[in-house]
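pasting for the record
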Amino acid sequence: MSSTVTLSQERGPQTSAAFASRSLQVHLWFISITVGIFGSTTWRFAGELSTGGNPVLVWLAGCIGLYWGIRAVLQWSCYSSSHWRGHLVRTSIHILSTLGYGGLSLLYAVVWSGN
């Protein structure tokens, strides 16, 4: 049995829901890999990033900062407040995530602009 899901009008909404679920799983894996690469690159080259010794790494820091800045904006512009508003834990996670994304953006922007 194949794990590939195809869309067709004959199969109805169950296939569409399975496709959406599978797409989100793939999306989650690729975002996780990207963030892991950001973290491991930062960890490995922290010294060079802090001194600005390599212009490629400084440029990379700027790109990573832009990524996290966009992510902070998307946290508020793309997620419906109905998912978190009125729920203390969800609201706290939403706000802390925004602060974390904004903080990462600021940190990388400082590295980028200081060199």
